[in-house]
Amino acid sequence: MTLAATQLEAAIHARLIADTALIDLLGGAKVYAEAPRNSAFPYITLAVSLSRDWSTGTETGGDHRLILTVWAGRNHRDQLAAILARMSDLIVAEGLSLPNHHLINMQQQSCEIRSDQRNRALQGLMQLRAVTEPIAN
């Protein structure tokens, strides 16, 4: 994982757990890299992180794809939708700051709610795309 990707994940995590409205929706600071076994719904996990070189002939950069997953009880679609909306506001609308990189662009590419019959849950998937470049020394 690149330094930019690590900083991006850390910035997203910090932004989410610092927001009292989101924490109220989750019933606590339940934002995990990997959820503890038998975690109570709802909670958020970072499901996928992929980074690629996005350099040009003159600039160095990175293209990052992240998927955040929100897990909620199967009868809590409204709660899940509210959590996804708040996450979008926090991550995309308000922007993020990274210590050693400029966040050139952050977009929500998709948002999906689906049923997970095996876990008797609903799963909300938010796919994000970010482009970064290092801050020149």
In words, what does this structure look like?
The protein is of the alpha+beta class and 137 residues long. The chain has one domain: STM4215-like, CATH 3.30.2000. 29% of the residues lie in helices and 40% in strands. It has a five-stranded mixed sheet, with helices on one face. α2 (20-26) runs antiparallel to α3 (77-93). The model has no long low-confidence stretch (mean pLDDT 94).
Keywords:
STM4215-like; 137 residues; alpha+beta; 3 helices; 5-stranded mixed sheet
Brief summary of the model shown:
With 137 residues, the chain is of the alpha+beta class. The protein has one domain: STM4215-like. The protein contains 3 helices and 5 strands, in the order ααβββαββ.
Q: Spans of 5+ residues with little confidence (pLDDT < 50)? A: none
CATH class: Alpha Beta
SSE topology string:
HHEEEHEE
Number of alpha- plus pi-helical segments: 3
Distance between the termini: 22 Å
Number of E strands: 5
Number of domains as seen in the coordinates: 1
Strand order of the largest sheet: 1-2-3-5-4
Over all CA atoms, what is the radius of gyration? Answer: 16 Å
Largest sheet: 5 strands, mixed
Proportion of residues in extended strands: 35-45%
Q: Give the structural class.
A: alpha+beta
CATH topology: STM4215-like
Proportion of residues in helical segments:
25-40%
- Tell me what the CATH architecture is: 2-Layer Sandwich
